[in-house]
Specification:
Length: 591
């Protein structure tokens, strides 16, 4: 048998089920299921197809879920799937014994689950142990965000379960403010939809939440005549000043030696149950939580549970490098994009450095290379949009023009774009280039007549032969290697002469911190600080406007460190393979 979470629509009562009467009398179960979820999984078996199952035990739970589904969405249902050899009675008895160990009160369930997480159990492990959904486990663990007075009031019955669930999404200060209203007794604390608005949608921002000097605020401050609070009347100006202060706070932590400082998006909750305490010296990070009401809370010295497990495996001595490997500064696709564009620029420049090309050729002959057979670089784009972007690269057009001239010099037929596509196999048409002069690794059908080429070369002068050798060397330059950085550095290759920023590049950057650094480089430090908490979508739009010329840019705005030779990164250059490759060989070029 195995535990699966199955969509309600893929379940149906078994015709052989012994319970014929009362199976639809399930109104008593609905409140419990709404509050606690499905605690005991249904017992099912396949019903003629891989996605259809009939219910052996648990029809009342099924009908209760069906009624609930009429008003709201239902998560996949936890089910024990029987095999042909399973005994239904034995499974039911085992489940009953296991479920009896699970406390029925939400707070007790939280404590039980929290104790298991401290023992190293994952959410999936706990869900499987009790036969419940992972979502239910997460819901119970979210109670860890509640302050003790709210937990106690809930257990006494003074606060309803719906309100407690909403309060798990509140910051600790919001919880304290809300509970103060409960204790005061002279006002009604918001509940239900009003509580949601109070937590997330209200426009009132108190001056006590400002990290900046109130003297910098030029708008009006409105005082509460019946209380001690004062509020900002210009919310946009508040966030501009607050974001700048948050950016400065982040910089101070970085200067203080913290490996990473995570600025969460406004309203994103810091979930304690997903975190493990860890010292700064052992790779701990700083998390900055920002509420919709402007309140900022800082959590020092934490990593995610997954990171903590990796760090333990790596050992404390290697903690910093283990953290750096967890979240690269660029995604693999973004690194692929940068590698290919930089590769294009360097091999274009190599055409004008015949002596260097000859020496590079000799170095590969002596030291060997994955491509030195001789084969052209395969230049595989990991996404179609990367190949499309490369088609607009000026270096690509220059290289293709030279390829056709070399073909003519060798007496080979030049190819139009459509003819080049026809010469390629179906699996190759999505690559970054058309048919190469030098065959690639799997170009079995694109071999040239070596004797014919040798005969033609004998009629050419040394300078022309050197031109051809230079082209062949450039076509065999392996992309995504330290060779690209070495040659680009030597030739002082300027990416801005051939590469133009495009939407594909922006879309491939998924890290908000890196995207904010690009905004600062292109649109200026003030713009970056003003949008340090803005979603990636907003920051990409700023950069898109810069590309279109609709927004002012800094001098040499697009001379990004990612496009430099050698490649550099923002911050600590986390996870950049090109930087690591260069670090391994740079001592040869720093004389």
């Amino acid at each position: 048998m195995e535990l699966k979470h199955i969509e309600l629509t893929n379940l149906s009562p078994a015709k052989t089920n012994v319970r014929k009467q009362g199976s639809k009398d399930c109104d008593d179960l609905i409140p419990s299921i709404r509050s606690l979820g499905i605690i005991q999984p249904l017992l099912v078996r396949p019903n003629g197809s891989p996605t259809s199952f009939e219910i052996v035990a648990g029809q009342r739970r099924y009908h209760a879920l069906s009624k609930i589904a009429e008003d709201e969405n239902i998560d996949p249902v936890p089910c024990i799937v029987m095999s042909e050899s399973d005994d239904a009675q034995a499974i039911e008895a085992s489940l009953a014994e296991n479920i009896a160990r699970l406390p029925m009160d939400e707070i007790d369930q939280y404590k039980a689950f929290a104790a298991l997480t401290k023992q190293g159990k994952s959410i999936g492990d706990i869900a499987s142990m009790f036969g419940v959904s992972e979502r239910l486990v997460k819901q119970r663990l979210a109670i860890a965000n509640l302050i003790a007075p709210i937990l106690n009031a809930y257990r006494k019955g003074d606060i309803r379960a719906e309100t407690v669930r909403l309060l798990t999404m509140a910051t600790r200060q919001q919880q304290k403010d809300w509970y103060a209203m409960v204790k005061a007794g002279d006002c009604y604390p918001p509940t239900g939809r009003a509580l949601k608005i109070w937590l997330f949608g209200g426009a009132e921002i108190a001056t006590t939440h400002a990290l900046f000097d109130l003297a910098d605020y030029t708008g009006n401050i409105v005082s509460d005549l019946f209380g001690e609070e004062a509020y900002f009347d210009d919310i946009d100006q508040f966030w501009t000043l607050q974001n700048a202060a948050i950016s400065a706070l982040k910089s101070r932590y970085a200067e203080d030696g913290w490996k990473d400082v995570i600025v969460q998006e406004v309203g994103e909750r810091w979930c304690s149950w997903e975190m493990t305490k860890r010292a700064k010296s052992k790779g701990g990070k700083v998390y900055i939580e920002i509420g919709h009401n402007g309140a900022v809370e800082v959590y020092e010295g934490y990593v995610t549970s997954a990171e903590a497990r990796r760090l333990e495996k790596a050992g404390n001595a290697d903690a910093e490098s283990a953290v750096a490997d967890i979240k690269p500064e660029l995604t693999k696709a973004a690194q692929n994009y940068v590698d290919l564009h930089r590769h294009s620029a360097v091999r274009r420049d190599l055409l004008n450095h015949q002596g260097l090309a000859l020496r590079f050729c000799v170095a590969q002959i002596i030291a060997g290379s994955d491509l030195w057979k001789v084969q052209a670089d395969p230049r595989k784009a990991s996404k179609p949009e990367i190949a499309d972007s490369l088609a607009t690269n000026k270096a690509e057009a220059a290289f293709e023009a030279e390829r056709n001239e070399i073909r003519m010099l060798l007496g080979l037929e030049t190819l139009t774009d459509s003819e080049a596509d026809n010469e390629l196999g179906e699996d190759e048409k999505d690559d970054c280039q058309s048919a190469t002069l030098v065959p690639r690794r799997d170009d079995w059908e694109h071999e040239h007549d070596g004797h014919g080429i040798l005969s033609k070369l004998k009629t050419l002068d040394d300078e022309t032969v050197m031109r051809i050798l230079t082209f062949i060397t450039a076509e065999c330059l392996p992309s995504g290697t330290a060779w690209v950085d070495a040659l680009g550095k030597t030739m002082e290759t300027d990416m801005q002469t051939c590469w133009s920023p495009d939407q594909a590049f922006l879309d491939l950057i998924r890290d908000k911190t890196v995207l904010n650094a690009v905004v600062g480089h292109v649109a200026g430090k003030d713009t970056a600080e003003a949008h340090v908490t803005s979603p990636c979508k907003v920051q990409r739009q700023i950069l898109t406007n810069c590309i279109k010329g609709e927004r002012k840019t800094e001098e040499n705005a697009w001379a990004l460190p990612h496009m430099a030779f050698p490649m550099r990164g923002f911050g600590d250059q986390n996870g950049l393979s090109a930087v690591a490759r260069w670090d391994a060989v740079k001592h040869h070029y720093e004389q």
